[in-house]
Amino acid sequence: MAAFHRLLQAMVHKPPARLERSAMTELGRHLITITSRPETVFVEGRGSFLVDEQGRRYLDLVQGWAVNCLGHSPALIAQALADQAARLINPSPAFFNRPMLALSERLVALSCFDRVFLASSGAEANEGAVKLARRWGSRARGGAFEIIGFEDGFHGRTLAMMSASGKPGWDRLYPPMPGGFAKARLNDIGSVERAITPQTVALMMELVQGEGGVQLADPGFVRELRALTAERQVLLIVDEVQTGIGRCGRAFAYELFGIEPDVMTLAKGIGGGVPLAALLCKEELNCFEPGDQGGTYCGNPLMAAVGLAVVNEVCRDEFLHGVRQRADQLSRGLQALAKDHGLPGERGAGLLRALVLPSDIAHEVVAAARDLTPVGLLLNAPRPHLLRFMPALTISEAEVDEGLQLLRTALRQVMS
Ligand SMILES: *Cc1c(COP(=O)(O)O)cnc(C)c1O
User: Fold this and answer.
1) Ligand 1 pocket, residue 269 CB under 6 Å
2) Where exactly are the structural domains of the chain?
3) Mutate to test the pocket of ligand 1, among 155, 216, 245, 252 (most ligand atoms within 8 A of CB)
């Protein structure tokens, strides 16, 4: 048995080079290896700052990947959790609860949609969107089922969402992958026209590709896409998991494009750090039969109460105005940095921004920034030549300046 186990280990346990460090260390030795993590343990968060076990402070411009829109451990969320936990945590998804009703009512009032399904993760909401589109396709479009996604798009990590995503290599990672997903290129309307077949039921897109490196859809392209999909009776699903709930300076990013999608998904920001997601659609798409769709935590009042508190706070004019001011400040600061260091430039929408680097040094910059003293800076590099910024929407003017200053120091270290 021991010999067999050793053989198995030798066959299986060959971590790729980039995973080796974390796989070999004591920390996390009982966790299944999925990524390499820095050798530190975070124990506390307050607004834009994280603190590790050694008491080191870090200015956090990642915020759980654009999740913590109100920063770390905001009083508003702590209070909503405490109040709701003391009252009712889980009646059952088969019963109504007040937070579920209030949150869906609020989302409908804020958006162009009429119906809401609450879920726990972005991938789950997106799966729901695909099911809804296929259900509608079976009713209204003679069984059309195919979904067009975009190259470099990201929709989550379930098998079907890996098929829907356009991450290079994902279609070969866990074969056989679910079928029925085609691909087009962002900002290339011809590629969309070519991808549409009589079987096409929906088009699924991020208006700003987050994981793909903060790639923005052109407003003209999005308007053409809306017209084309309407004409061909193809549903337009926008995945606003990363862009929704104030991230781009509006409640929802589709507002920036002057269009109305047919379906939208939300996650990340809507929970402000707790697992909450939503699928929204127009009334005519409300076509699930009882039993077609569900989930143990769908409409869980504990999470819905948090979502309601977050949405009520973020989707106010003054709050969104503040997001746009901080976004302008960050954008100007990144432009100045780019100019001073001869970098290609910056881009983004609201507080979802990217700085393009001249070569594949992003991971080095991330490490250098994290190791700065006395305060570290937490950054994200979705691409080897690109840094992505997703600060708390509540980040202060002084904290944006501090972040830019720390970034300048880290860049100087790596580039000199
Ligand atoms: C993060 C993300 C997802 C996946 O969300 P999970 O909650 O991790 O399942 C889907 N779509 C987009 C655009 C995302 O940024």
Assistant:
1) no
2) 37-66+317-415, 75-314
3) 155
**Which of 34, 159, 162, 268 to mutate for ligand 1's pocket (most ligand atoms within 8 Å of CB)?**
268
CATH number listed for the domain at residues 75-314: 3.40.640.10
Q: Is the CB of 121 under 6 A from ligand 1?
A: yes
Q: Going by CA atoms, what residue is nearest to atom 5 of ligand 1?
A: 122
What φ, ψ does residue 356 adopt, rounded to 5°? Answer: -90, 130
pTM: 0.94
Q: Which CATH class is domain 37-66+317-415?
A: alpha beta
Residue 278 Cα to ligand 1 midpoint, Å, equals: 12
Question: Model confidence over 338-371: pLDDT tens digits?
Answer: 999 999 999 999 999 999 999 999 999 999 999 9
**C-beta of residue 174 within 8 angstroms of C-beta of residue 159:** yes
pLDDT number for residue 171: 84
Reference 267, options 128, 363, 387, 383; nearest CA is 128
The total number of residues shown for the chain amounts to: 416
Average pLDDT, rounded, for the chain: 95
Query: For the segment 220-238, what is each residue's pLDDT rounded down to a tens digit?
Result: 999 999 999 999 999 999 9
Q: Do domains 37-66+317-415 and 75-314 have the same CATH topology?
A: no
List CB contacts of 373: < 8 A, sequence separation 6 or more: none
